[in-house]
Amino acid sequence: MNSVKVLHCADVHIGALSGILGENAAKRRFETLLTFEKIISEAIERKVDFLLISGDLFDSNSIDSELIDRTFEAFKNTGDIKVIYCAGNHDPLNSTSPFLTRNLPENLYVLGTEDECISFADKGVRIYGRSFEDSSQVGKNRFSITPPDDDIINIMVLHGELKSDLNSQYNAITPEFVKSSKMDYIALGHVHKKSGILKLENTSFAYCGCPEGQGFDELDDKGVYIGEIKKHSAELEFLPVSKRRYIEENIDISALSNSAEIAAEIINKLKLAYGEDYSQNLYKIILVGEVDENVIISKDEILSRLDDELYFAKLKDKTEIRIDLELLANEVSLKGIFTKNMLSLIEKAENNEEKERLRDALKLGLTAFKTEVFYNED
After folding, report:
1. Residue 337 CB partners (closer than 8 Å, separation 6+)
2. 190, 247, 188, 186: which is closest to 221 by C-alpha?
3. Which of 65, 74, 59, 53 is nearest to 7 (CA)?
């Protein structure tokens, strides 16, 4: 049976700027480019026939020209691989698009803003799809071009949002659209989390997710899909390619007594969990457990100790004080009155978010009876 080998990637967001990274932000913008270069290297090494890029290669059409230059240089290294691109909502195909203002390599094919089909007779493949023309796009229930009933493999490259209806500004893709497309595989972009290989009737489809996480709301492995497409089937495997991962880690510090011990425990736990490359990730560390009342947790000290060990870390203190609050609330003292009033407010809180905020305030207040405190998000 005829087959074709593809690498499916999407949502690289070259040039994306993450405000939380501070001095690392500028460097991180170029790491998205390095990851794209790695994707191309994988495509070459694994001898794929097609590199399918399903939108949002650039974070916008106005990123630094140096990043755009390097990206187009990377395209030139793809050799005989056919590169298929559909523009997404971040880098729409309009007058500002570098895909319309630059000379394209012969093997780079950019799908237009109307439904389109590109035939590759020598490969036995037809590629369908369309690009965003603006930052939003209305979806539709059917693609306007239906493939003939033959042995040619039909692949679609599309950026959009899987929906049960057309109520979306990001090119809604409905089950009716998938089934009526008569595709063998639809390479989707827009959603940053990999979906696994899904199937409706004879059409396989998938989001590969983004190859580099964009924040602590994107904690899963990041990469691309690679493998073979045949008539009515897609045999693809997930290939991790990210340079760094965003990771959220709970660290129990119940047995520890100072900030130096806490920092050492964090490093030990991360080494055990993530191996020799542990230091290269971006971490959100959540301190949990119960600590003695006299234990002072200095976020600034802990982060300073982590600074030489980790590329990036932010810290949240969710520990509880090991103390009988009800007993303390009955104490005839300023500390006791404060505790009694806070417990009353927590009990009356209307939702969990407010309760958590008040518990944090209680903990900070009790700490303030011992030492000066400085509160911030990290």
Report:
1. none
2. 247
3. 53
Q: Which residues contact 106 (CB under 8 A, 6 or more apart)?
A: none
- Position 375 pLDDT exceeds 60: no
CA atoms within 13 A on the CB side of 72: 16
> Is the pLDDT at 187 greater than 80, yes or no?
yes
User: Quick one: which H or E segment has residue 222?
Assistant: none
**What are the DSSP calls for 146-198, one per residue?**
---SSS-EEEEEEE-EE-SSS--SB-EE-HHHHHHHT-SEEEEES-SS----E
Q: Are 190 and 170 in contact (CB under 8 A)?
A: yes
For residues 274 and 188, what is the distance between their CA atoms, to the nearest angstrom? 30
Those residues with Cβ within 8 angstroms of residue 272's Cβ, 6 or more apart along the chain or in another chain: none
pLDDT, average across residues 205-217? 95
Q: Cα(78)–Cα(351) distance, rounded to whole angstroms?
A: 55
Query: Considering only CA atoms, which of 108, 37, 104, 23 is closest in space to residue 67?
Result: 37
Q: Taking all residues of the chain, what is their mean pLDDT, rounded to a whole number?
A: 91
Other beta carbons less than 10 A from residue 199's beta carbon: 14
Q: Which residue has the tokens 């893709």?
A: 173
Asked if 57 and 38 touch (Cβ cutoff 8 Å), the reply is no
CA 365 to the chain's CA centroid: 37
* Distances in whole angstroms, Cα of residue 143 to Cα of each of 106, 205, 320: 27, 15, 56
Rounded Cα–Cα distance for residues 277 and 258 (Å)? 27
**Distance (Å, rounded) from C-alpha 349 to C-alpha 358?**
8
Angle at 170 between CA 164 and CA 175, to 5 degrees: 25
